[in-house]
């Protein structure tokens, strides 16, 4: 499928809790890769870098942007394409979706030292994933409709816990729960779910016409649409509150985002700016 030309921007995320104000400062285009797809960012667990899928030589590989050196390096160079990289709780590893040239699509695990990777979850055609802990990974599996599936790596068992879900699945800060966006109804809804017993709880309606979300360390949900970011803190906010606009940076078309472990940085994926045209959907 054709993919939009996108770029990944890193910002300082300045939050004043008492005043409930937000600022974006010091934008850096960390992908800096014109005309192609760069997307699916995630922060390293210590916040020192950002993993993302980046295109080169007509395929996508995993790239790492180091915040201290302000430099980008490549972590994979396989015959297939890698997507959705996330650092594993095992620290020395990251996991990613690998799409082979023959169409096979599985979840793999890689070492940062570039030693030979291996398949992490067999049989399932995984689209997206998140780690619950060192022994459990939760995946968006490409069924019809897509399902939320748990893999217990220690006991080598797999089981489904939900169906008809969206692509944005995350661990909820300070909990043993996963959040997902349900597509069961016309208006999408955000739920929490316990991967051990499938107990779920409604959190809020998702931001209309938006598919991706991120959690801040204090349990606030951030979602984006067009050139704007919105906030909703469960049990405090009754509805989505607009907090920021990317207009001052001439950026638009927000698709994905991720917040750093300390909550002081945010990465936002936007449509690539095209000289001489409005920066909208393309």
Overall description:
This protein is an all-beta fold. It contains no helices and 24 strands. The protein has strands spanning 6-16, 21-29, 38-43, 49-56, 59-66, 71-74, 81-87, 93-99, 105-111, 118-121, 126-133, 136-141, 147-152, 157-163, 170-171, 178-182, 189-193, 200-205, 213-215, 221-225, 228-232, 241-245, 257-259, 265-271. It has a 4-stranded antiparallel beta sheet, with no helix packed on it. A hairpin with a 6-residue loop joins strand 9 and strand 10. The model is unreliable at 276-282 (pLDDT under 50).
Task: Provide tags for this entry.
282 residues, mainly beta, four-stranded antiparallel beta sheet, globular, disordered C terminus
SSE topology sketch:
Blueprint: E1 6-16, E2 21-29, E3 38-43, E4 49-56, E5 59-66, E6 71-74, E7 81-87, E8 93-99, E9 105-111, E10 118-121, E11 126-133, E12 136-141, E13 147-152, E14 157-163, E15 170-171, E16 178-182, E17 189-193, E18 200-205, E19 213-215, E20 221-225, E21 228-232, E22 241-245, E23 257-259, E24 265-271
Antiparallel strand pairs: 1-2, 1-24, 3-4, 4-5, 5-6, 7-8, 8-9, 9-10, 11-12, 12-13, 13-14, 15-16, 16-17, 17-18, 19-20, 20-21, 21-22, 23-24
